[in-house]
């Protein structure tokens, strides 16, 4: 694959029609916020891009009452499943505050990058992997990895539009050592 193309490659990728809605919530607890309480907050505050409320929300467990603790839940709206990341922002006594944001699956982000590279240079890289889901907040950045033959390149992925979790990416100029 022509590595010189990667050096200046910058592309904006449109995501699926997810709207990124960050919302601050508060729950009262001692050590955790129950998964039902988190699900109720998602059901109350989150919507799809058309403003429809979820019919179903599920979380895999309770949310630890510790700043930075995260929980990845799912909501279903009109038959479409959305990933929701819940992150604790503060804990004061028994009050736990947390944000909720839609995310784009890490494998979907990697596929979108690979697809765009195929369109732009006529060939897919050997692989593209991302370490985590992309949070739908403008300016959010993650680092992914592209493998082309024996060379590995870092990829910076940045959210440009939180409404549909659109992003741009840039492949590093030089392979990783």
UniProtKB/TrEMBL annotation:
Keywords per UniProt: Signal
Residues making up the signal peptide according to the UniProt record: 1-22
Domain called DUF4333: residue spans: 23-93, 103-163
Pfam families reported for this sequence: DUF4333
Name this protein carries in UniProt: DUF4333 domain-containing protein
